[in-house]
Fold:
Amino acid sequence: MLHSPGGPLRGFFVGATEPSDREHMDRALALAARARGRTAPNPLVGAVVVRDGEMVGEGWHARAGTPHAEVLALEAAGGRARGATMYVTLEPCAHHGRTGPCAEAVVAAGIARVVAAMEDPDPRVRGAGFRRLREAGVEVVVGVGGEEARRQNEAFLWRVRTGRALGVLKAAVTLDGRLAADGGDSRWITGDDARRTVHELRDEYDAVLVGRGTLERDDPRLDVRIEGERRDPVAVVLDSRLRGASDRQLWRRAAAGARVWVATIAPAPTDRRVALEKLGVEVLELPESDEGGVSIEATFEELARRGLNSVLVEGGERTHTACLRAGVIGRAHVFVAPRILGGADGPHLVGDLGFRRVADALRLVEVEHRILGRDVEISGRVVPGEEV
Structure:
């Protein structure tokens, strides 16, 4: 049954603000964005220390296991942190993980005022960091830049709230909603600019997921091919019976060290599982859905358990449909090409979702449009239908 965990978490606004608070928070948000796609399972966090109107230290969390943004900003500020204001995009943690609690570091540095964009919904934190700061006499202001911080950490917030990785649907379609021609040809529906943007998206998300049909038809690499600093997401394939072809580019990438996972129904056929594992592919044995495929809910829960916040779902039609029906898709990026294919047998963007009224259709909100050469990208959050 279709369902949605709902929209972004709503924060609160506490404390008196100053005219320059927004300017400094914008800087902290920009710093946090530098690590986009690198911090899972942690959130993106940026921090700035300001004293007497001057920025004296800044930092951002680069990846899990490395120092947090607050600690780096305090180290950069040194003794100038005493009596200063810290701007941070998320509540400082108050628990011991791979690193020490940031709230204690803030108190020890003598920070007088903390301006935070939002509370951390992680049950290990959730207000405890703010309480520790207030107990130590630190003034705490919450809510400056809160909406931007929530959008920036959409995937982290989704995982904490639902226990599943955030699914982000990505597709290239014709004006009539086709993913490929009747004969299966899909190269290339969109132009160079759109395809380059897809690689940029892969660089931002923790995993990219396709079904067995896409693996068979397109033989994708699912890597990132852009210049400059880049990192490949985990490649995930849904293959309920491990019936995929034995010679695929993904398997060769796995043999070369890439992280490639195949989600299948437990128990997996032993001979096929062993053959894939010898190639370096990791097989995830998961429950079966009511429809006879791999449980989408269980798959996204397993990806979250393995430390992934987000999954770019690249199809095809059956996979899009299953993920939308399971309610694991929270955002979509659809690239529309000015072409009309027609035909009767080729795949569409999505199959039957069970809707029989326009009012029930899933909607995109907070919609953005971009012109990419001849194509148009339409993106936004996916929410249940109500408005028409």
